[in-house]
Amino acid sequence: MSVSKGDRRPRGELARVLVVDDEADIRELLDLTLARMGLSADCAGSVAEARSFLERERYQLCLTDMRLPDGEGLEVVRLIGERYGETPVAVITAFGSAENAVAALKAGAFDYLAKPVALDQLRTLIKSALSLPKAGGHSVSADENVVASGSRLIGESVAIANVREMIGKLARSQAPVYISGESGSGKELAARLIHSQSARHLAPFMPVNCGAIPENLMESEFFGYRKGAFTGADSDRDGFFQAANGGTLFLDEVADLPLAMQVKLLRAIQEKRVRKVGSTAEEAVDVRIISATHSKLIDCVDARTFRQDLYYRLNVIELKMPPLRERQEDIAPLVDALLARICGGRPPQVAADAMRTLCAYSFPGNVRELENILERATALCADNSVMLEDLQLEPENVAEGSAGRDGETLDDHINRVEKQVILEALAKTGFNRTAAARLLGVTFRSLRYRIERLGIEE
Fold it and tell me: pTM (2 decimals)?
């Protein structure tokens, strides 16, 4: 067993890090780097040695290689996740081994480094891991869900409780997150909450609407430019990556990125380095990527408008934001909170029939639509009371009772129709999926995904 100099330091004086690598020179390099940062290290050369150390000591961080003589680093990642959840673990992968990095992040790793290890990136990773708030500690708790703007995730439904729990887990990782959900369902709020509860909460949160940037300005907006790089570039300028350095870059409507920019974004994510337009040198950047889109990103991959390799780098972990119609019990508390925000100290009262109608409304635009409805209603209402006529709701979107047509939600209705169409196509082709996909005008892969999602069996 290889034990570093750090093992001889008095217990409790320094933050302790477990280093797991079968190469003695790597262990020595990491131990020396940690010592210069004022940290104590124990070094193990195998999964078995790492397991033994973990049984005896509590660590603030673990650094593990992916390839070990008696197993894989993923075993260490999973062991720590199951038994020592307070300890973040980062993996060291072979250069260019994107598959290993993604697998480690999905298994619960905090972050990853590629060999040869860049010491500046190593120090940044260590500082981020050690600054993670303890579960239930200060920073911003999962129960409060408060961000700088004062926004919070409101509701006590099962769906929103699951989202809160997932946000708490994602905040303790550096893994890229893909947030899916309909327009107005709160994807940016979820991204801000992940950032505000993470080790990066003191650094910038940079939201970017990818669909709002002209294609000819994409590269300079994302990566910055040097003076004289093009007409009008009269000084050096940083891009989104530099502005978000140390923090989180939120790419909203990421599916709107043109293919040429997707290639450059993929390289920046993999290498953690960017090159300004007009520069010959790359610079290191440390950002966490959170992306979102209202469309299904896998469908964009099937349509070949979105690169598959970038999809797998962005969609390491998916957070699904439920539509408002799937958490109708949250509508009443949302109404109260939104009215308080819109009107300040004296929000109007909502009449009983108006509240019943709101709770039965399908909300195609989700929470954003609810806020717009309430802003309009407060402008129209009299005597500080919101009446049914003040809401001006579209009748076709108001269901009888709390569910949609014939007791179905909109999603249930769409899924039922989609399932029926697919079953008819399969029946016509003798359950030949390739022929059915051709008949439906979709790719085989897209049809297979839909069959699995809808639970269709032959």
Answer: 0.73
Domain 5-130 CATH class label: alpha beta
Lowest mean pLDDT, pick from 11-25, 36-50, 135-149, 277-291: 135-149
Name the CATH topology of 410-454: Arc Repressor Mutant, subunit A (1.10.10)
Give tens-digit pLDDT for 157-193.
999 999 999 999 899 888 999 999 999 999 999 999 9
Count Cα atoms within 13 angstroms, Cβ side, for 40.
17
Asked if residues 44 and 33 have their Cβ atoms less than 8 Å apart, the reply is no
Residues 6 or more apart whose Cβ sits within 8 Å of residue 254: 210, 291, 292, 293, 297, 314
Structural domain boundaries of the chain?
5-130, 158-320, 325-406, 410-454
Q: How far apart are CA 421 and CA 6, in angstroms?
A: 65
Q: What is the dihedral of CA 308, 309, 315, 317, to 10 degrees?
A: 130
Note the residue count of the chain.
Answer: 458
* Nearest Cα to Cα of residue 355 among 382, 374, 369, 341: 374
CATH class of 158-320: alpha beta
